[in-house]
Design brief:
alpha+beta, Nucleotidyltransferase, domain 5, 34 strands, 28% strand, Dna Ligase, domain 1, Rossmann fold, 8-stranded mixed sheet
Length: 674
């Protein structure tokens, strides 16, 4: 019998390093589809997922929302375009000089990342800081520039002229002169109209570096989706949805596309569960992303992000990334020290236990320890190869460990240490006590490591959402249309220009959203600092903005000075068009007691028990099918809870309960707390 055709179907797809996660709603129910990623061409897995979903749920109109790693991978692998960087004459070495800050002052072996391009061109022109024209570019200078770039075999052009945020006329003149070359042109006054020449130049150069590849990828994806009459939009780093055309034009906005979806999904889960303060822990196949959130506020963004040591100053969610994931490779260095990552097995060949890889990973260690069950991975759709995992771990010299299982525990501890450091970076190092937060763990591997990290940080509550391995895709599905518009102004608090710049930014926001047929909610903010300081704090704009600035300065840096003059550096307008949010029904509450739910074949073999290696010895553990757990059920560790998108490990000393939204709530038991 054919399924009835529905009016509209939204599909969210998050491409990860190992799996491509697809989430859609079918008559109010969340459905999840996981496919192996196709790193050689990510669109193959995406189009296959769309094909399967559209055959299951026919619709007259299909919308595909995509969290992409294309821009990220092109940057990490240095496989972008050949960029011609155009700047004011005399400033051609801006990207090469960069910043002279040294993270480790006395480290003689520090190496800064190479500039994204060494192909630079100077234009004789000059704009003053106040926007007045000191020297206009001549027609002959622009003609010479066009000829030089044409001869350089550049594939993309980045234009970042001095003080173009105050007056963009010269950048526009350069763009007009170079239009005949028919190359993608990125202009700094459109992408980042803010001060700090190096950061602005780096951001626009990265945009140009990524543009040809991203444009080609999006065009190919749109051609494939045309067969389904499906429209495409892209998740951006700031946590909002962007049209495919805008993403192709400004791909630098998509560098944290996938992790941003996880933050939005986590925020939605926390709000529905009534939890205010959360630390998000998103552990996937190649990396772990963490963030600190207040569910009563919009997620914080930053304009001081870096990728591979290069500044990316467009607004992005304040996410910290660590090079540890389920696919992180275990290895010994020449001194005999054990490491886990940052190198990863990725999707191809993947962990050894997936059947193609040869090298041991964190996932293989979890399997050897019994924290993954070979028959219940991906809901039983994929069987893990235990023998291959043992062989891969045995290939690494581990004579200093009592057994292979002790060695596997060592791998897990090393990976956990890297992820704990990331969580401390966004909490303790910013003046927040992690013990007052709930750890919200998701991603394909997050629920396996959540309790150990919570113990290390003194956290007393862990939340594992429904379908944790697909939460990033779910966040993309529910994300709002979101853009930020900014302008550096350098004004005193009482300046009349404030009342001119904010309305201009708001008009720009409305015009941008008109092309999306959306009416945005507008929110004003400003970057403030004490006069003479080098960096700013972002404050929501209101009558008490300056008093709140002093309080935030005290919290962030340990001191404030209400008598000191404050400088308004950059004015910002955030525009948000809300997406309709579905009603989340509460499940019926069941009894507290529940027996382990496992397949009959396994029950016959093992008598309702499973074994895990924990704290140096093997223990009996319960094995649960999460799909059969109901709100009100309570479990005690040690236990393994299997489901389609992830596996949760509940260690000895921990308890789990199921809340009304079918979240797993993990807490240490009374004896453990003592």
């Amino acid at each position: 019998m054919l399924a009835p055709v529905i009016p509209h179907l939204s599909i969210a797809i998050d491409t990860g390093g190992t799996f491509t996660d697809c989430v859609y709603r079918n008559r109010g129910r969340i459905e999840v589809l996981k496919l192996p990623s196709t790193p050689d061409d990510p669109s193959r897995a995406i189009l296959e997922a769309v094909r399967r979903v559209c055959e299951l749920v026919p619709a007259r109109r299909v919308e595909v929302r995509h969290g992409t790693t294309v821009a990220t991978n092109a940057l990490l692998e240095r496989k972008g375009a050949r960029v011609a960087f155009v700047t004011t004459a005399g400033f051609e070495d801006t990207l090469a000089i960069a910043r002279q800050a040294r993270p480790n002052l006395y480290d003689w072996n520090q190496h800064r990342p190479a500039p994204i391009t060494s192909l630079t061109f100077g234009v004789p022109e000059r704009i003053a800081p106040d926007g007045s024209v000191l020297l206009a570019p001549s027609k002959s200078a622009l003609a010479n520039l066009r000829g030089a770039i044409n001869d350089s075999e550049a594939e993309s052009i980045a234009v970042s002229l001095l003080f173009s945020f105050a007056n963009s006329a010269h950048e526009q003149a350069v763009a007009e002169a170079l239009a005949s070359l028919r190359l993608p042109i990125s202009l700094s006054h459109q992408i980042l109209p803010e001060f700090r020449e190096y950061e602005r130049g780096s951001t626009v150069a990265l945009n140009a570096y990524l543009a040809p590849r991203m444009q080609s990828y999006i065009r190919a994806l749109e051609r494939g989706l045309e067969k389904r009459s499906a429209a495409l939009s892209i998740m951006q780093s700031s946590g909002g949805i962007l049209s495919a055309a805008s993403a192709a034009r400004e791909p630098v906005r998509t560098i944290l596309s996938g992790p941003a979806g996880g933050v939005i999904g986590a925020l939605s889960v926390a709000r529905i569960a009534g939890i205010d303060r959360i630390l998000t822990f998103d552990m996937g196949g190649t990396s772990t992303d963490v963030a600190l959130l207040d569910a009563n506020r919009e997620p914080p963004t930053t304009s001081e992000g870096q990728v591979e040591g290069l500044p990316v100053s467009i607004p992005m969610l304040d996410i910290h990334t660590a090079g540890a994931g389920g696919g992180s490779l275990a290895w010994m260095d020449s001194a005999g020290a054990l490491h886990a990552g940052p190198q990863s097995a990725g999707a191809d060949p993947g962990p050894a236990c997936y059947g193609r890889g040869e090298r041991a990973t964190v996932t293989d260690a979890n399997l050897v320890l019994g924290r993954l069950h070979p028959d219940y991975f991906l809901g039983g759709a994929m069987r893990l190869d235990e023998a291959r995992a043992h062989k891969a771990l045995s290939a690494i010299p581990h004579r200093s460990f009592a057994s292979l299982e002790h060695f596997a525990e060592g791998i897990i501890r090393v990976a956990n240490a890297r992820m704990e450091s990331a969580l401390r970076r966004v909490s303790v190092e910013r003046g927040f006590d992690p013990r007052t937060f709930t750890l919200l763990a998701f991603g394909g591997a997050g629920p396996l490591h959540a309790c150990a990290l919570a113990e290390s940080l003194g956290i007393r509550r862990v939340l594992i959402p429904a379908a944790p391995g697909a939460l990033s895709a779910l966040g993309i599905l529910d994300a709002d249309l979101r853009r930020e518009f900014s302008r550096t102004v350098m004004l005193a608090p009482a300046s009349p220009q404030i009342s001119e710049v904010f309305p201009a930014l708001e008009a720009e926001a409305r015009a941008a959203f008109a092309s999306e047929s959306a009416r945005p909610i507008l929110k004003r903010s400003a970057d403030l600092r004490y006069h003479g300081q080098g960096y700013e704090l972002r404050i929501d704009w209101s009558a008490d903005a300056f008093s709140r600035f002093h309080k935030l300065h005290e919290q962030t840096y340990g001191y404030s000075d209400a008598a000191r003059s404050v400088e308004i550096v950059t004015l910002r307008v955030q525009a948000i068009a809300r997406s309709p949010k579905p009603h989340v029904p509460q499940a019926k509450k069941g009894s507290e007691s529940c027996a382990p739910f496992i397949a009959q074949s396994h029950r016959a073999m093992s008598g309702n028990t499973h074994r895990i290696f924990e704290n140096g010895r093997w223990r009996k553990a319960a094995l649960y099918d999460r799909a059969q757990l109901a709100p009100g059920n309570r479990l005690t560790g040690p236990a393994v809870i299997a489901e389609l998108s992830a596996t949760t490990y509940l260690p000895t000393g921990w308890e789990a309960s199921i809340d009304a939204q079918s979240n797993l709530i993990l807490t240490p038991n009374a004896r453990s707390r003592q």
